[in-house]
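2 proteins. here.
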Amino acid sequence: MGNLVSLLSAIPVPDLNWVGTLVQGLYNAIGSYGWTVVLFTLILKVITLPLDFWQRCLTKKNAIKMEQMKPMMAKIDKAYGENKKGAQQEKQKLMKKFGYSMFSSCLPALVTIVFFIFMFTGLTSYTTHANVTEYNNLVDSYHYAIVVSAQEQGVDLGEYAWLIDDGDYEVGDWSTEKETAYQQFFTEKVAPLANSSGPMADTEKYDAIIEGTKPIVGDFAGTNRESFLWIKNIWRPDTWATVMPTYSEFTNGSLAVTGIKGANETEYQIIYEAVGEYAGGYAGSAWNGLLILPVLSGVLSFVSTKLSQKTQNATMDPAMQGSGKFIYIFMPLLMVLFVLMYTAALGVYIVCQSVFTIIFTLILTPIVNKIYSKKSISVVKQASYRR
């Protein structure tokens, strides 16, 4: 190793925004971030259920109105011929006359986008918060491991033996008092080993001490990181991404994490290697996930939008249905892209959002169909049109 590891105090944990605070409150009750996201998604879905039901009723009414207006629209097209602009203006007058609301066709997409941004900002806040908290715990476990490894390499702990009297390190064991004592221990008994010109010089022993910390830190990381089902670290993507962010990702930031300054690069790299070697993921201790969430997000988002498409097409002017189809193909692809690039936590949200949308669609559609029928809404008395 040969490079002296600088001492590092804890990096300040960034404050959560209000969405992140809600997530934290649910987590305190549940104890799993993965299931917290599932429950939070369900709560959001239930809260918006009245809006969802209203929108479905409006969409159904529009579908009936559009079906009744189609013969009149056909006559408008015939009357205006190649004058597409004039025909469209006349159709808009017709739709306004019979109370057809074009807004209902846009509402589902708008609600989806709003809540996606809502969750995106909340999970970004919490991901940054979680990464800093996790790294601070890893640093504490690393400092504990330095003391253990030094003892194993024959360093006399002396008055510092109490630092490891509690046995294996657990979250919360490393108090401010212990950190202060550790820094004194490191300065007196470990750092001089790396000074090749000093009286205590022994770079081989120093390197052995550093190397000996990796199994301890790796075991701690594997036991205490926030995994979920097959995903090793829920704050990393369910892809080929490493279980722990690289130093560049941690300090410079990425799509999922705000850049975090203050980590010592040498120390970070040692911890990063420890996690990769002893608490890694799949494919040779590399991958954090198995690409299951991206596949599920694409399939379920397509099914969800396809179910909506059947109703939406019935409410739209036939001339506009082509653009609607493009949106329904584009959205699932966009969701897959986000899940590939973002954290597994957002992937869980997207998958759950699609699942709950499908379930509510299957439950609410028969109810809405029973309430509204062609007989109950007869806005067009005669299928005729006169200019």
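next one coming up
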Amino acid sequence: MDDLELQLLLRDAGISIGEGEDEVNLVYFDSQSNAYAGLSNEEIDACSVYSPYASLAKSQGYEVVYYDVEYDQFANQPCCRQVATSAQIAENPNTYVAIERALIRAYQFTQNDHDKTVQDVAKYIDIDPELIKVEVYGGYSVSHPDPDKQATSRLKDDVVSLGLIEDYDIAPHYNTDIYQTALSQIIAQSPDDSIFQEMQKHFDEFE
């Protein structure tokens, strides 16, 4: 995802990718940790990273060139989505609705209890809790269970525009009914919860 966004930004800025003096030479690493470590190499001018490396880099004196949330074209950009085959969904629809309910309630928890959320994240990311707080609540990333169909369709179009895949109709492959069913069930149980109401509003706008 980071690579795709970088290529789009370079293209839109009229900057070519290559090894010439006026081009950007992209180097691919095996992992984010290795990419971040590459900053210590004087031949590397910058690296593309995701959470929590941006905040970690800033704490160590590096400057952030850009955040993808600063660009409207990347709004609600889907990343790390869970997928299932149509056959699996048809066979176990209630299971997938239950999973969505769990994700929705987990999102509600992150919005209601920042301190406990940071503590939970700290179990898996060994950095200063204050940096975790910046990563989770600083406005640089969003962990939201909404399927964001519009953003996903835009992402597909971006990938096609770079010539990485052939174009296709994404609509038959995108099922938002499971999420809507799960959210409706939760709202029926907690009709006055402002977070769930906001999630419904978000879904209606971006479905």
